[in-house]
Structure formats: structure tokens, C-alpha cells
Amino acid sequence: MSDQHIVERGSSSDEEDRDYVTFDFILSSRIGFGIYQIIALCIVSLIDFIDGAEQYYMMILVQVLQNEWKLSDNQIELLGSFYFVGLFVGAIISGIFCDWFGRKNSMAIGCFLQLCTVIWTSLAPDYSHMLAIRAFYGIVIGMTLPIGILMMTEIVPKHIRGRCLILTQSAYMLGKFYLLLLCVFFMDDLSKGNWRAIAICQIFPCTIMSIGCLFFLDDSARFLVSHNRIDEAVVILNRTGQKNKQSQYEPLTQYEIESLKKWQQAKFAKQPTTFNTFKGLFQGSNFGITWRLIVANCVNSFISSGTLFLLPFYLHSSGQGFFELFLATLGEVPASIIVYLFIDVQSVGRLKILNGTLLLSTVSLFLIYLIKEPFLLGGLISIKFFSRFTGLCSTPLISESYDTIHRSLGLGLSTAVGRAMGAISPFILYEVYLFNKWVVFLIFASLAFITFLVFLSYPVDKTSKPLDQDHTQEIITKSRQQSPQIKINHANEDTTSLLSEQKQNQDDQTVVSRSALKDQNQD
Fold it and tell me: Which of 39, 168, 281, 429 has the fewest CB atoms inside 10 Å of its own CB, making it the most exposed?
């Protein structure tokens, strides 16, 4: 059978003629979703699991060390801020590391450093050491979090990409429950207990994550293709296909390998320098994405870091403890389930869900400010619900916004600027809390409404759509002239209808089969 197939797709107003199939088509139709992506999902989810546990650990640690080491208010603010300063630095590093060393190598380095820092935390002798540990741990977490999101975004077929990212992010919630469980065994209340034993228990998930990353993960084939490392990408794609489909998998044909080369030339022929990639974030359609993501991440980080920092103070001042903290965290469970069910439904989309939850979150925060103490626990539960809802919806939306060339640096930049705002949040909000603890919720409500307005005009929503669109018609035309015997007529893969996507795939399979039968008859 010939490796060259005649594949005809439906026409559209943006119809182009190409003589190759795209990476997304090969990933969805040939490689599929299977055991490899499930293993990768479990490993990458541990990054969010540890981050969730660490956020709650930091929240409780501040209260404990204030009593145990007799820390002043300024020292408490510094302890909370240094972690977010580290997150800012780590987020910047992640974008550069990912493009220089690849997704897997960057993640492996981050996992190993994370393990070392957890061990260091359990041995911290005094406040100055703890400040350094918090800053360095923030750097490590800030570096690994975007890499995990990038990895899952690039290795999963488009029809299930959103749900996989939701499952990854849901591990963040499980990490919080894990930390609360440890607190039951090692803490007396929110202000005293054996915090070193809790740090030691964090070693186990870090070790599992490090081993899994080293021995069970491959680099992102999409990233390798974008950097013209086609042979390495083909090896990884074939290995992934064999794991997913076992004996039913057939290695990529020469035609498909040539298609990857032509797709790379069409989409990534001009490899920009790091400076030009950074500059490209503020040019053309990327500009509208970048400034909105920076504003949204700043607001989200300010609210989330402020909430985590102040939550134990609110509960402690109201005579509440771990049970109430558990109930507030429980509000995240239904949010994860609902988002998982709807995130990949193209008729709904990421933006509609996100905007709806931001509006409801604004209302909940404003109600706490108005009703105050009687609504505190119910309000905290609703805040946890809507904040988790917002975070889960925004993750796939943000990670899909840029193409592969700009994705790591764009995600790293917007995350880094947001983390910087999170670093100053404790300084500002703790002073507001001391002045009037209810005004904090009025500030949060105003910021949540600003985020709603920002996303109301967000220009990109790639729900169940290809990550990278081809724009270089000149290269396509030149390639078609060099290979006139192969012709592929297909619609724009960025179709606005899931039904149209399914019909295109069915047409692909039908005509490929017809071509195979024709080749056999000729033989």
C-alpha cells in the first residue's frame, strides 16, 4: 500500500489546500488517548497535589511559628510574602527552561529540587533559615507548575484535553485534604503542633513524582516537532502509540513523517530567539491575550494568596478550627465535578463557564462583607467553590491561548507577574485585616468583578480545537507545487462546530480506506 493517501475534507469559507496532515490529526487519530497519557496524568497531578498541600501547610505554619518562635507582625508578613516572591522567580525561569531544555528535563530538575527543599524544611533551625527555605521552595514550585500544565496540554488529544487538565488541577484539592489529614495526627489546633513531622510526610509524594518523571515520562512530541527535532518526536509518538494501542498500533508511515516535517515548516519554519519570542507576546493577536492574562493572574493571585494567608486568622478569631477548615475546603469538590462534566462541551466552552462563576463569586464576596459573621462559614465555603471553579476553567483556557512557540514563555510571564502581586498581598491585606477584617472581602469582590470584565472580551477559546493553526500559505503553496501528486482538500481545523470536527474525521477515514482499496487493486 502506498504511504501517500488522498484525503478530502469538507470545504469552508477559509478553505486551504494542503499536502500534509497536521500534528493534531496524527495525535488524535493515530496515537489516541491511552495508558501513556494516564500515567503522565498521575505523575503531573502530583505537582498540583504537593502544591495544594504546601499552600495549606504554609497557611498553618505561619500561625504555629508565630507562637513557637514569637514572631512579630512584620516577620509574619515576610514569611508569607517570600514564598510568593519565589513563585514569581520560578514562573519566569520555567518559560526559559522549557524552551532550552525541553519539558521533561525541566520537570525532572524541578521535581528533584522540590524533594531536597521538603527535606530542608523539616530541618529548619530558625526564622532566617525558614525565610530562605520558603523563597527557594516558591522558586521550585513556581518552575514546575507551569511545566506540568504545558506537558498535559501538548500530549493529550483535543477532544479530551480540557478534562485531563481538570483532573490534573483537582489533585490540588486532594493535596489540601492530605495536609488536613496530617494535621489531625500531628497538630493540636491551628496554632500549635508538630509541623516538622508534617514536612517529613511531604517527602513521600515528592519521591514518587521524581521517580515517575525520570523513568515513565517522555518529552512532549509537539515541542520536539516545533523545534525541528522530527526523528526524536517520531520515536516518542511511536512509543506512545504502542503503549496506548498495543499490537493494534502500526508505526507512523513515511507519508505521516513527511507531513510532520511540512507542518513544522508551515508553522514553525522561522524559529525566533528568546527575545523575539518575548516581543511576540505583545504583538498582533497575542497582545490582547497577554495583557488580559497578566491582569487576570494578578487579581487571582492577590485574592488566592490573601485568602490562604488570612483564613486561619478568620477561623481562629471566630473560635473555629480544623473541622470548619475542612468544610470550607469541601466546597471545592462539587466545583471539580461540575467543571469536569462541561469543560469539553464545545457548545458551552471555557469562557461562558468562567464568566458565570466570576460573577457569582463577586456576589458571594459582597454578601460576606454585608452580612459579616453570620455568613462567614457559608461565605467561605462558597468562595472555595467559586474560586476552585474559576481556577479549573481558566487553566485550560490560558494554556491553550498561545501557540507552541509562545506557550511556555507566555504562560510563564503571565504567571510570574501574577505571583509578584501575590507576594505583596499579605503586606497589604494583613494591615487591612487589622483595621477592619470585613473590608478585605469588599476588596476581593471588587477585584473579582474586574476579572469578570477582563474575560468578558477574551479573544480565544479553543475548546476541543487544535492548539496550533497554520498561517503560512506561501510555504503550503510551495510544498504543494513540489508534490503535485498528493492533494489534501480540507476545512479549517479551527471549526466552530464539534459536529463538523467529527464529520471531517469520518471523511478522513472513509477516503483513506478508499485510497487503500484502490492501491490494492492496482497491485
Answer: 39
